[in-house]
Amino acid sequence: MGVSTVTAGRIYKGQRRGASGEEAVLDFEKFPFTALSKTYSVDKQTPDSAATGTAYLCGVKTNNGVLGVTAKVKRGDCAAASRRENQVESLLAWAQAHGKWTGLVTTDSVTGASAAATYAHSADRTYTSSVPNGCHAKDIAEQLIHGDTGSRLKVIFGGGLSEFLPEKTRPKEQRMIEGDGLPINARGNRKDGRNLIEEYLQRHTEEDTRAAFVWTRDHLEQLEDPRYSADFLLGLFAPQRLSFALDNLYGSNDSLSSEEPSLAEMTLAAIKALSKAPRGFVLFIEAGNIDQAHHDNLAAHALEEVYQLDKAVRISTKLLSPKNTLFLVTADHSHPFTVNGYAARGKNVLGKTEKNGHNILSYASGPGGSAPARKMNRNLYPSMVNLTTGVHSAEDVPVFAVGPWAHLFTGSVEQSYLPHALSYAACIGPYSHRCAKNDLPQKTSVNVNYIKDRMERPTEKPFFTEVPVPHRVNILAPNQIEFTKVQTTAPVTTVRPTAKSSFGTTFPDSAVTHSQRYVQVPHTRPKESRKNPVNDAGDAHEPHRVASQERSTAKDFRKQISQRRKKGKNVVAASEIDAEIMPSSFINIKPESRMDDGPIEEVQDARPAANTQKQRKVVRLYVPRNGKFSNGFEKRAGMMTNYQIQTSEERPS
């Protein structure tokens, strides 16, 4: 699903709804953050689905044709693929290790390259139901049922039934479930005589968990009935991949296709099942028939599959809130598919530019080149190079993101970057330390608008240069969420070094004194006031000297501020300030500032500032009820009168 497929799919969606089409918007195009992903593999300029699946699910680029292993494994090298040091874990495995539920939904076979990258380690993507002689590794279907990651998938929906069944049907006395017409007793492709569906059900029975196997659309609806509830769901709805959605809509020779669920229906059932997860979930959804339709030069079928993917995204975003769920839509690779010519606005994107013109949609390669005079043959679209099947292209593919930490998905990135950013946002896998259990969180309930502003305009630097202060977000109510700031485990004495006689501001939490930080204003400092050091004894016997010193300090400070106004305002980066967020309901004083500032309370701290013997002023900021701060501090705060807080977007390089 490259950029051209997204463009054509957008027009197709609009025209499918009776509009001109060009002005339509796919639901995932509404996501606020976009990027481009570079798809090349280690050994090829143009990748296949196995290499790209390993990249965007495991975070490692590898060779074409291999799954879940590093580039040290050449295609077909079973011995190298079996070595643990050459295997890589997927995003779903990282999620499982941290107690999250996981699921897999695809219109392709569940043993297909993209889906298999979530759970399998294989020297060849074609080892779906068997391996060559001399190869002692498990085939991909067996890894799904008995593998470390595959066996813990809560939901598995897709095609590929034949990969789990033996070539010969079993005698009735050896069947787990009686019934000649049941798919579980049908013939398959396995040469070892094993029925992996029976083994799947038996495995979970022994583990004292309930498992269900479904194979029709009606079964998905029955899963909502408490009588059929299960801990693990396996749905295989076709012998290989599912039928094209266009064939299901307008008729097909395959009578079984009417019993197949759509991608949106499988997505709905999967989310309902996974929404019970106590610690959240990770769900992988693949519109695999987009790829197959492009391979066959079936442009209309490919665009209908894009439309079905858009429906699945729309259902997902309605069921799950982007306030606490990160959504990512991308592709494994692109195809040499083109939208060309000067067709008039509103022209049928599946037709020609004009009455005797050329086709708007065409391919650079594929079976469409064999048609006479390169004209459309039913649903077959023309191609320039005649091949038995269409090939992939090396162009970058788009990435669309919305939700917490979606701002990490911008610019041009390596495809292997995607799972690392996802795991960073979810605090799993290599970045689980961001939400370490040993850290003591300080929780408070704040307005959703504040969190949204915090997510869209973060003050922290990107994670690949400096790990920011970790945060956690949990939904409490439609308009309230729980914002958790994890306190670092550094010693209490760890403070920023201070220059002598400098002015600063601390933002302490009254309940947690060790979280105080002394923050200095960078760049220029107020001129040092006349020193008049006094010891503890002098404080008691010479109070007039202390009062005189305070007046002198305040006078010099106001003088310095006045001089700085003429030169321009000094800018303080927001990252220099560590504020402990507290709800405004925590205090009893009346708000003296504007409503968008929140109340500001000035107090005296009896303890001397670091490296000085002067009293320092403490300014406590409280989160207002509408969740917004002003751009700067009020004058009455007594500190930093002439400074502005600078966000990350405005920070000078």
Automatic annotation (TrEMBL):
Residues 517-570 are annotated as: Disordered. The keyword Acyltransferase does not apply. Its EC number is 3.1.3.1. Binds 1 Mg(2+) ion. One of its GO terms (molecular function) is metal ion binding. Residues 525-559 have a biased composition (Basic and acidic residues). It is an enzyme of class 3 (hydrolase). Zn(2+) binds at D291, H295, D332, H333, H392. Mg(2+) binds at S114, E286. The keyword Zinc applies. Its cofactor is Mg(2+); Zn(2+). Signal peptide: none annotated. This is alkaline phosphatase. The gene is LOC100904800.
